[in-house]
# Entry
Amino acid sequence: EVQLVESGGGLVQAGGSLRLSCAASGFVFDDYAIGWFRQAPGKEREGISCIMNNDGSTYYRDFVKGRFTISSDRAENTVYLQMDSLKPEDTAVYYCAAGTGGFTVLEYDYWGQGTQVTVSS
# Structure
């Protein structure tokens, strides 16, 4: 059974940091890209960053470049999203997903349940 389990969300003040984790199981980790998405109330789910587990390539949307860092621990089948300099507009439910890569929902086959990130001003 494929599982993606996010953790690490919470409440943080603006300017603070959080590290999200995505623990994957039930599929060949290196065969998939892992992406991080977020969805704020009333908004569409948007891609933030992704990592290609076969070669370690990483990609970021412009609005998180320089603030968020994605990394992968292939021994633990876990992907991390280090989020620094958080802003109130980063408040959303954050999801990880496994697929072919990219920033669109359709490029991903498996999804986690999400973890809430709230940034207070």
